[in-house]
């Protein structure tokens, strides 16, 4: 399966421009899965409460219709991050759509820093779906920091974790190698680059979108400040074989009875 | 608290020489905690069943007496890896001793590759003890690959994970940065370097002993092929404050009800 990861620099609130730039970048892509960044069509830096209701849309809103039309054109599945409006508030969500429509939906569980001022944390949990023989699960950006996120997706059977992101901390690209190794999965991180600044807040995004293999290899990567697309061919069989040495099986070697699952003090 | 990490190249079966070399390296050290490698006095490469009973010793054997005398001389705690003989078989163990004697004992849970031919996997689990105001827990080498190991120690309250190792895979030094960040703890990895070869098996150890901080910094590191000691001053308060951004608390942000704790297929 060919996996494409898209990186660009969305401009806050300029939905039409962000959608047009994405459309240019994915034009004619030869891939079965395309990963777009977190909040790809709105930009990231919400700073006032009134902005989110104006820019968020329901799961079945116009962005999904448009991305589904792209999925039909490319004959591919596309995962994208978006601000989701619901009667329970707004979520930092991602949707995975194929040519026939919605395949999977995720609401970010581990919100980063000031996202908590605007978004509700996801309560739906993780899920894995199969598309053209590859089992995929979604996590979003800061979920990387919590080993339980990638672990949950792997335990649900994911061969490939698709990871729309807007990274500001420098550690994630290396941490995704650890996540790939500890779970023996592929991880495709689509990040953005550029600076967003308004209302006295400035954030610099780190780019460095990448695809890593279950063997801890960085199969392809983009720079810190460039628009671009990388396409990598992955073999899901490599992710399904959890035998990582002659005598080590990543699941069989676990000793759950000996693990401590809850902080003693908190 | 000053933490020292020792790196050298033990020779298989040459217990006296390995102990003498360690003694030279730690002579006069100004540190409250000293971390020695896994299997530091026997070497690593067991290749025949009869070797282990000959080289293993009980927890309260002569090595512990000797290391305890070093701990008294240095007025420090010392953690070291050793082959432990018990009526239930041999374990790849580590002990932490202070000037007054034994403080903590760990039997490696996640055995690496051919270790399974000679050692039993540990069944005692993880533990954390306090020494001079710093809470410490032990994990050994390949435990790094399983996020539950460092997570368990952090959840038990560890400020500092001491990590005797004999690393052959290249990823561990970077993975320990992820482990430090995801748990907000210090990690002191004492590795060995050099090659062991016998009975048609050859292993090259990667050195690169290090201390990493809860903020993901590599505070000090040794080379791929050198004897040496690094000493780093750590502040346990940094590990206890799990508030990693203004709005993110590493424990408070967890959503255990949404995590999947067991592989669906295995």
Please, could you describe this protein's structure?
Two copies of one chain form a homodimer. The first copy, chain A, has a six-stranded mixed beta sheet with strand order 5-4-3-2-1-14. Chain A contains seven helices and 14 strands. In chain A, strand 8, helix 6 and strand 9 form a beta-alpha-beta unit. Chain A is of the alpha/beta class and 266 residues long. The first copy, chain A, has one domain: Nitrilase/N-carbamoyl-D-aminoacid amidohydrolase (4-Layer Sandwich), CATH 3.60.110.10. At the A-B interface, helix 4, helix 5 and helix 6 of A face helix 4, helix 5 and helix 6 of B.
Number of domains of chain A: 1
**Major sheet size, sense and barrel closure of chain A:** 6 strands, mixed
Order of strands, main sheet of chain A, comes to 5-4-3-2-1-14
Total beta-strand segments of chain A: 14
Identify the CATH architecture of chain A: 4-Layer Sandwich
Kindly report the average pLDDT value of chain A.
Answer: 97
Shape of chain A: globular
Distance between the termini of chain A: 43 Å
Percentage of residues assigned to helices of chain A = 10-25%
**Biggest interface and which pair forms it?**
A-B, 58 and 58 residues
